[in-house]
Amino acid sequence: LAATEREPRLRPPAEAPVRLFTEPELARYDGQKEGQPIYLAVKGVVFDVTSGKEFYGKGAPYNALVGKDSTRGVAKMSLDPADLTHDITGLTEEELKSLDDTFNNVYKAKYPIVGYTSRRILNEDGSPNLDFKPEDQPHFNIKDEF
């Protein structure tokens, strides 16, 4: 991410309640409509990046990341469409460290959390994943999110 994007800002409080997003719901917040919030998910956490619309809005350098869970792209610092996914399979230790650093020092530090992706707590068929424990997720600590 650009050096200016890494500069700390105070994270504004979330104005809406935290909610669960399906992929089609998250896709509605892709920065293409003027006046609509811009959302980006990393590690299943949905951030409101509207205040950074110069980075994430329509035609902006990182617009490809928004409206979806772009965890792999953030980890690899890649805008390749194949990397714009939640899937972290096969990432190197260095990429996972980069993901954690960017998640904590850019997204959590600057942008309000507005929800979570349904993939984090639901099975593929939409039923609740009764075995889901946030603390068991790789590179995830719910206590650090708030």
UniProtKB/TrEMBL annotation:
SUPFAM superfamilies: Cytochrome b5-like heme/steroid binding domain (SSF55856). Keywords: Endoplasmic reticulum, Heme, Iron, Metal-binding. It comes from Dryobates pubescens. Belongs to the cytochrome b5 family. MAPR subfamily. Residues 21-118 form the Cytochrome b5 heme-binding domain. GO terms for molecular function: metal ion binding. Transmembrane segments: none annotated. It is found in: Endoplasmic reticulum. Pfam families: Cyt-b5 (PF00173). This is Neudesin. One of its GO terms (cellular component) is endoplasmic reticulum.
